[in-house]
Specification:
single chain, about 200 residues, mainly alpha, 9 helices, globular
Length: about 200
Amino acid sequence: MDINQNKSEFMDDIIAFRNEIQKSLESNINTTDIEEYRNEYQGKFSKERFKDYFVKKTTLHIVFKYILIRMSEDLQKIVNPKFSKEGIRNWNEISKNYRKDYHMLYNIASEDIRRTKELGNIFIPCIYDNYIEKLQNSVFNKKENNHIEILKEYDFRTLDPNTAVSLFDKLYSSEDRENLQGFLEDSKITTYLMKSLGLI
């Protein structure tokens, strides 16, 4: 499906994907789970504020990683497709025991790109990747209204720079950027996309 001809629907689908990830992480991450990261923020943020920022930054990292995987597969063609219609069809055919295990596929796709010279350094795992496991059943392998299934229909070769900037602004507002960009560990994925789009 051409993104530019279905821009509004595409934006809605990506935002719904983001919202689902964020909601799941909010439910599955306790303040005690991330206490070890909070030391340098003692006295600056409450536990609740710290968790809110952590969940938002982790959510964005995971969504932008998916977008960058799709761009790497469809547009740059530096790895074989995993999340396009063709990629998902191939995955379901060759992996009978793991059919529809898109959590595993996400990890394989990330590792494939980590081994490339083009984007390898950006895909080195960081603290935000530690929480992808918490989305295995609630997001990636969900039986109904699975966003991986929904988003496979879009051809990321048709994602033009203007649409990409609009999408980025919707996903990562200027207020969130101000609060989150310097928060905790850098998400190389997010920073790379911002630089690529001329936003920093």
